[in-house]
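Reader question, answered in our methods column.
A reader sent in the components of a multi-part assembly and asked whether the whole thing could be modeled at once rather than chain by chain. We filled in our standard form and ran it. Here is what they sent:
COMPLEX SIZE: two components
ENTRIES:
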Amino acid sequence: MTVQKPRTRFTTRLDIKNGAVEMTHGGGGRAGAQLIDELFRRHFDSEGLRQDSDQAQLARPQGRIAISTDSHVVSPLFFPGGDIGKLAVNGTVNDVAMAGAKPLYLTVGFILEEGYPLADLDRIAASMAAAAKEAGVAIVTGDTKVVERGKGDGVFISTTGVGVIPDGVELLPARIAPGDAILINGSIGDHGVAILSKRESLEFESEIVSDCAALNGLVAAMIAAVPDLHCLRDPTRGGLSAVLNELAVASRTGMVVDERAIPVKPDVQAACEFLGLDELNIANEGKLVAFCPKEKADALLAVMRAHPLGAEAAIIGAVVADTRALVRMKTQLGGERVIDWLAGEQLPRIC
Amino acid sequence: MKYVDEFRAADLAQSLARAIAAEARPARSYRIMEFCGGHTHAIFRYGVQDLMPGNVHFVHGPGCPVCVLPIARLDNAMELAERHGAILLSYGDMMRVPGSKRRSLLKAKAEGADIRMIYSTQDALKIARDNPSKQVVFFGIGFETTTPPTAVAIQQAAREGLSNFSVFCNHVLTPAAIGHILASPEHDDAGEARIDGFLGPSHVSSIIGSRPYEEPARHFKKPVVIAGFEPLDVMQSALMVIRQLNEGRAEVENQYTRVVTRDGNAKAQALVADVLELRDTFEWRGLGFVPHSALKIREKYAAFDAEKRFDITPSSAKDVKGCECPAILRGVKQPLDCKLFGTICTPENPMGSCMVSSEGACAAYWSYARHREGLPVPEEEDEFGEEDA
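And here is the structure of the entire assembly that came back:
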């Protein structure tokens, strides 16, 4: 199946160190083939890619499949704790994993801006390869387009992921029921504040690092321990408040969380205080919210805390019957308030 | 978090709640206007009202900087970017406030105007330096807290000879607004006086001190307690107002002693006085034209005054019909009294300024206190209410 190609298909090698993306790299000609060969293929390798075809031809997996797609436009492209490449892999891996699925394959679409340095593109590709390896997924096919200078912002990446759902696992919003416990695997707001702190004129003294991580390993451990998990959701854009509201509406329940139980890092809290942001609305890239029957909550919490990505996991609240689908929070002061969706756009281009 | 959690501690809140319950006389009610949106936000975000006895009410005041800016001035700002081609720089909370025809800075930006959100006036100067061929206008809004940074930016621009930079100055003054509210004879629907006492501004008072409130407190015989923005500050200050009322006093007291002094920040005051001077009158949304309630740029810095540099069309834009923002800003009505509240006016689709900023009373009610009885249920939730019934 594997075709060994000679190393010298092109007269001169791609100058990754000093070169830049050119319009011809997206033109369907030899330059595009060379970019794929000498840059992307140096990092990505899979059975699908080795077929040299316009699509990947893969064996049909056993069981139901989960499929998800996500586009990434984060700015800046490199940030503390990650970059657009790592984000593009983990973001889609996580969306697939939230079905309880084992992610298997990823497809990748690049939209590159003319003039973007190849050295940076090379770093992004290396980062994607490392993230895919760590998550145990194969990048099986891809596409590259180039837009004129000024029409893009360096690099946009779209990824689609396919995974297989183990028999007996059914994670859906409709399964959330009054009495369910609500858990989270760690502190909220890290990603959004890391991005914000990196943006021009908002540098803080201490570096806050994005939580960008692939959660499929943690999910597998959670499902092994509590197969009757009701629902998982990753609180990315819109943060925890958006996820709780979405799921309250979808499951026609209410939710009550305890402010004191929600983990927030002191640096993140300080940055939010300073900037007038609410941690509940801020994006995460390595967090999941889990809903399970109350009597399974302690077992689930224990298995989450035993995993490196769930060391700070906590039970943060409970699902209640409420036809208004309100999400309420017991405040640290001892009062109560609604947690609303974020109105407007708090932080554009966060992922 | 250190220096923050101490002011939000549940056990201290409970003991303050007990002290307030013991102090408040059951035979009367206590209507305390919290002047600032920061107080309003704290009351709702932390559920402070839940810890108050039933006869202690917070009346939400006009101290939300974006809420009191009249539509006409917002239209003028959009005009600077759209008709005069300037780069308009604004603090973030202004971006979504609806102007006339429900256009906002955000919508004007989407339509192509160069409108940018900034976090400080230093960012504004940098953008002016980086774009020497463009006119760069800073949209200065806010109370006495945001005024010194505007004054600094103008001084700095003058020193640097930054000739493409100017300020569209809309800075307003708190004591004038408090006096204006107290001078108005309005009563609530039940015919009761709207306001028994004030929680006075915290950050504003760090600049101007507590002295400027002494005259209105004495003249109108209403207690004023300068109150910090943390929930325990608000509770302690409410207790101080209730004590004054019970003892028949009407003084200016300072709860926020960790920041505020009687005379304030002399350096900041001198800075502002060098650059800005009193306007004869200025329009406030909700309050109308209030004499000596705002600042303009002094003649010696006229080169940096956007109102002088550009030909700005006078506008007589009006609020959306049915929007009760003006009465809510005066404390005469509550958000629930507005027919638009929660029906067609929500934070996603604001009709008036009070629904935009998290410091606005309507947004605070909607976002944080919707679970209380009697609040309207939005349409999509209505649907499953019916199904369940």
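What stands out: The first strand of chain A starts at residue 64 and ends at 72. Chain A has a mean pLDDT of 92.
Send us your own complexes using the same form.
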